[in-house]
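Hi everyone, sorry if this is the wrong subforum. Our group has a chain we'd like a structural model of before ordering constructs, and none of us has done structure prediction before. Sequence below.
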Amino acid sequence: MSIKGTFSDFSLPEVFQFLEQGQKTGLLKLRETPDDRSAHPIVHFVWFYQGRIVAAADRADRRGLVKMLEKRGWITERAAEKIFAIYSTPTPMGLCLKAHGLIHPEQLHQLFYGQVIRQVCDLFQLQTGQFIFDPDANLPMAEMTGLSQPAVEVTLTALRSLKDWRALTEKLPLPDSALVSVTQGQPSMKLVAKEWQVWEFVNGNTPISTIAKQLRLPVDEVIRIAFRLIVVNLAEEVPVPFIEFEPVTEDFTLPDRAMFVQSEESMEESMEESMQRTDKVPVSQSFLKSLVGFLKTKV
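Answer:
Right subforum, don't worry. Here is the predicted structure as tokens:
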């Protein structure tokens, strides 16, 4: 059964999260709506195998990987296709070339990073368009390096380097909400230093704005880190618990105003005693009487 929707309904990180949790296999097509309505929509392709991303391309002819190999000067497109044709059983292109010693393991990792990580990172900036997941699509061996990575790990890597967050603005957690862990114990996923710092406050009680103050980081940065923890299934956003105070049941009445009013004689005596007790500097009697007279007018 195919799955489809729009980016206004679900962000790409949410789609990736769903496909990994369901361990889906198939092809995710992303149709980008161009600003110029007369232009043809741009289509991107991301292939999944049991929730892991195995390849990505911006072309439908399944020649993206050999073009990348040729552009890097590692092997010609014609030679790569000849080697690939030798195999009678379905084998990813990258593993075919590695088996013949034409590319090294490190080059294989570089290919996967350039083909998958970089392309997916750009896709996270899409603000308008549609997506459709086809579970019946065949895996493109000619586009595959033979390497794969869980969808949420690709998401985490891509979001760390994302510059334009406008497409995800409405999906970000609120600064007055908190985070609660949805995993047992410490995360097994590799986190960077600031992600670990925010993780220490994933207790369901501390607002994101308070976390930012504690860590001395901009609130926007902590919000984005919190979003990363959410979309990789480590935490979820929750409202901060509201603390209700018990009402005061004991009767309370203000004292009579007369209790605060002193007679003129007692006020003058108390002023004299106070001035003598707290200040050793002589005070003129005329100044003291003027001060008492002024205070009388205020009672």
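For your construct planning: The longest strand covers residues 42-49. The radius of gyration is 35 Å.
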